[in-house]
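[09:14] KT: can someone run the structure on this one? pasting the chain below
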Amino acid sequence: MDEVIEKTAAVDVAPEHEFYVVRAALGKEDKFLDSVWKMLEKKENHGIYAIFRPETVKGYVFAEAENLTKLVDSLRGIPNFKGAIKEPIQFDEISKYFDKASEQIHVNERDMVEVIAGPFKGDRARVVRIVPGKDEVVVEPTNMPVPIPVTLSLDDIRVIEDSNVSSESDKEDDEYGY
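[09:31] RB: done, structure tokens below
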């Protein structure tokens, strides 16, 4: 009787989970995830423990699964599923996508920025407004005769001059009478 209890206890221990990279149709990652969530709610013993998609990685989704075979068998037939990379990856490789604080760019209104991507690449602009929750800013390019507000991603700009630093230097100039 003791042997049966020991075997049952051994089965209750969670098997080691592995992380896999799943390919999804480019631009359809959210639809793919919605379909996966619906499948996970209906199907039992699918072998998938977690699935997520970082915003910065296009065309790929990360999954924590029991093994590759169960993962692919569960996802086969789901729209926008394009396959899975055979080799499991270490959690350290995907943990950087969980740490959002380390990659924040500090931008304030009235900062002078340089556009580093897109049609305005190389232009200087002044930040007019920061779009909350979207990692976007509204800027006005300084080289245009008529200021036109343009919405850009934080990834597309680089801060050249901080408005706080320039306002402090203005205060110093006022003290000396310049």
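[09:33] KT: thanks! Residues 29-42 form the longest helix (14 residues).
[09:34] RB: yep, looked fine to me
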